[in-house]
Amino acid sequence: MISQVSGTERTKASAPEYQGALGSLSVNSSLPEVLARGVEELRTAEQAGDRREVARCGLAVAEANRRLGRIEEADRAWKASYRAARAAGHEGAMAWALWSGGTLARQRGSFALAYRLLRLAAEMGKRGGDVVVRGYSLAGLAETGRIQGDYEAVGRLHEQLLAEARRRGEARHTVWALEGIAQMHRNTGAYDKALALFEEAAETALRAEDRRGWAWALRGIADVVSVRDGEVERALSLLSEAEEACREMRLSSALAYNHKMRGNVLYRAGRYAEARDLYARALDEFREIEEPRGTALSRLGLVKARARLGRDAARSAAELAEVRLMLDRIGLRHAREMVEKAAAELGVGPLPDSAGGGDPVLPAGGAEALRTADVEGLR
């Protein structure tokens, strides 16, 4: 367990996506509360004919719906927020709506659209003089590239954003950047560096009273102590702490990833039946919120656990080929390597070819958007 950290109090985490009449909401506010307040204030703003306030309240509604996994509602809300901001002639509000839309696109696995919307948001935020939305949009570009495995393109941008977040005293973005850099180190086998960064992120989030960032950091710590040290019970305890925070705030995606990670920890420990049940649970949760990346990764874990429990090798190979195709279509650069490694581990290769396979690449403009992104507009 990460205990309370002593020392000088740092800036508390804020939630700049909650604006206008919703500005008093905390980063730790439960999503149902945010949604209820957002809908109420949105109606009031519409009745008053205040287009800028309509845009602000619509943004909160979009974000609450997105994080609750209500994809269609989130899609309608960010677009309505953008239209209201455009009618009001407010570029900052337009940028926030585009950021929300780009984040939703990434969550849905639509990476080309995510790059396009997030880059537009960053450019519009710079023109409108909104430093915060520009920073969030650049961070969104960096995270999109990181998820796809293009660490060369996003590593420098993550470091730049971390330095800028620290300079500005933005605890929430400091935590985000630390976790992103830690994840890249973890995925490349630099476990000691990864653990140190995840622990720093957890401590920073705790001091800033950012329970969302804290929960994600605990998940990262649990992963590293499981894969590096084989500390199963410690990892499961950390995940239980994180799960409690996710449930309090109704963080649907974070909770599903927590369950998938619990499956990973149990699988590594050879507790295959328990891992199978957790992967199946996470798979249902990801399908419910229409998140294709989590869906594919949970299915990969489920195939591996079932194979360890005696599933026919030919059937396992066929299912792995299907998962490989799913991951290829999403656009994850490391998908083929992940699945081929699983096939070798289970002794079920070589895998049958699947139509539409091939080495995935960043969408057109994606790598360039990441390499040319800068933080000058934040200063």
TrEMBL record:
Pfam families: TPR_12 (PF13424), TPR_2 (PF07719). It comes from the Bacteria. InterPro entries: TPR-like_helical_dom_sf (IPR011990), TPR_2 (IPR013105). Keywords: Repeat, TPR repeat. This is Tetratricopeptide repeat-containing protein.
